[in-house]
Structures are given as structure tokens and as C-alpha cells.
Request: fold
Amino acid sequence: MLDKARFALSASARSDVAPFIVMDVMAAAARIEARGGRVVHMEVGQPAAPAPKTARAAARAALDRADIGYTQALGIPQLRARIARHYGDAYGVAVEPERVVVTTGSSAGFILAFLSLFEPGDRVAVASPGYPPYRHILTALGCEPVPIEISAATNWSITVEALNAAHREKPLKGVLVASPANPTGTMMRGEALAALMTAAEAQGIRFISDEIYHGLDYAFPAATAAQFSDHALIINSFSKYFCMTGWRVGWMVVPDALLRAVERLQQNLSISVPTLSQIAAAAAFDGRDEMEAVKHGYEENRRIVVEGLPRVGLAKFLPVDGAFYLYADVSHFSRDSLDFAKRMLEEAGVAATPGIDFDPVHGREFVRFSYAGSAADMREAVERIGNWLAKA
Ligand SMILES: Cc1ncc(COP(=O)(O)O)c(C=O)c1O
Reply:
């Protein structure tokens, strides 16, 4: 008989990462819907539209051929070449296909990036508010996320001064930025991105650019880190612009010196990325017209919320530059965004994400609205929020 106490399993300390609160909001919304209630969903950062028709047709044809085996660890050559060509088409910058690595969504890209760039204990700067998995993946890998507060005064991005100050306090090994960003929906100008990259490189701080929301830029065209340096590691995905969240396919542009390390990691961690998804992704680039129409839909949604929310009492929000997020200051109604979001869901039937998911300090005063749904949903949400706030 085994000694039960000796073999009782306890989770490792490194797996003790915070949950994603948005999942709790989704569960609460699902309970309301199960009772027959109506919920307008603005909590999830997911396009309502499906993958482009070209991608779905390519996947269907591949299924009929039934030759879905492993691929090369770094991805199928046609897809890597097609992604490399995209950098020429979209930004006028040359990227060699050899530097493109296909990943299982950008989420797996972070694991490959952090493992290939950092040692346990390394400090990596991230923006606060920011996308929670940056912090949580770094923590699980034994690295130390270093939140750098961003605000209107810093143009809602990490500045050279803030990076230098954090580095002086205790040396940083890396910095990760996103533009357009989640949850803020704000963007960095090309000059600001270039200046930050130069400052980081000068001090040996490795630079990671999360470009997952590229293509969804409304205020001005997004700049890629590839325009400014071959030493930055770029992360991107088919999830957002190409509406392919569930296909789990993304990519990285990797500095030459890291390529073999990334290849060895990918071979061992996942062998290769799902083949059907890679085939679909290569064809997605031929569906740009369809995706541009989806983007125009977001632009209309953005207009509805940017014009509508101030009319109903939510007048303070960050610049709505890109992605499909509006990050609203709700401090004049509540300093407990979790409670605010709960009540808005239960009483107004509008689901949104409390800011504490993204920023444990100031996030108590913010709520993130995703405007990736339909225009009719956006109008209904504004009206529901207005009626609710008027009563409150
Ligand atoms: C900023 C940011 N990066 C990365 C991801 C991960 O996306 P995926 O793994 O689907 O590519 C998300 C998802 O919401 C995100 O908002």
C-alpha cells in the first residue's frame, strides 16, 4: 500500500499563476444566457467573423487529400516564404524566409521566445496595464516580469526614460512591447518604437515586439520592429486580423543567432505546428479583401462606441488607436472594476472585462470593452449601458 501522504501531489510553485478573470465574466454571462437572458458580449478579444474563405477552402482540400503529417519544425516552407513576403508587401521591408518560424498561435511563440532569450531569474520589462499572459508565462518559466507603469504622460507606452530607470534600479534582460496593445488599444508611433529599440540595444536589453494586432490600426499605420533592427524578436499571429483564433497558428521573426535554438526547442516541445492550420494560414493571405471588409466593420464599431459611450456617461477612455479595444475609466462610478463589471453584466446585460485583469493597481478603475462584435451589438450595448448608468 502506498503511503498516500508521501505521494499526494501538490502543484509546483512556478505554476501558481493568476487566473484570467475574463473567463469568470464569460462563465457568468453563460449562466445568464442559460436562463434565457440576453447578453451583449464585449468581454472577449475575439473576432466574430470566421477565417477567410480562402483559408477554409485550402484546409478542406487538404483534408480531402488526407496527407496531414508532421511538418518541418520551423513550419512549411511555403508558409514561411509567404509570411516573409508579407513584410515586403505591408511595410516595404525585406525579411528572409529563413528567419520566419511558424508557431502554435502567438501564445506558443512567447514560450519559444522567452526560453531562447532568457535564463531563470532574468528580469523582463512589460507595460502595465498589459496582456496578463506576458507576466504569467515569464513567471512560470522562472523569469521576473517587471511591470512598467504607462499613462497618458508616457503616451500609453514604455518610454526610453522609464526603461532606463528600471534598468538602473536592477538590470533588465529584456523588454516586451505591443502596438496596437491589449487592453489599451493604444499604439506607438514608429519613432517611439525605434527610439526604445535603440535604447534597449545600447544596453544589451533584448527586444520583443508583439505585433498580433497589426492590420487593425485606425489612428495611423503600425510600424514593425523589423523596420528598425534584425536583432528584435517579433511575434505575430493569424488570430486577430485573419480571424483565426481557434486554428492556433502564429509566427515569429527571429534574429539569426537564435534560429537554431528556437528550432531545437520547437522540435522538442511540439515537433511541429498543426499542419492543417499551416495550410489554411498560407491561403489566408489571399483572403485580404474579405479581412479588409471585417476591418471596416471594426472601424464602424469603433465610431459607434467612441461617439456613443460619452453620450451615456463614459466619456473618459484611452486613445482608441487600434486592435478592437476601448479601455474606459469608470472611476467616477466605481473604484472596484470587478464589481462594476459584474453589476453591468447582471443589470444591463453587457459583458466587459475588469481592468484588474491587466493591471492589479490602477485596473480597479478601468473596464475593457472589445468592439469585435457586430454594429447592432455595439448600438445595443451603448443603449443598455446608458439606461443602466442613468438608473444607477
Ligand atoms: C496582445 C496579445 N498577444 C497575444 C495573444 C495571444 O493570441 P494567440 O495565441 O491566439 O495568437 C493575445 C490574445 O488575445 C493578445 O491580446
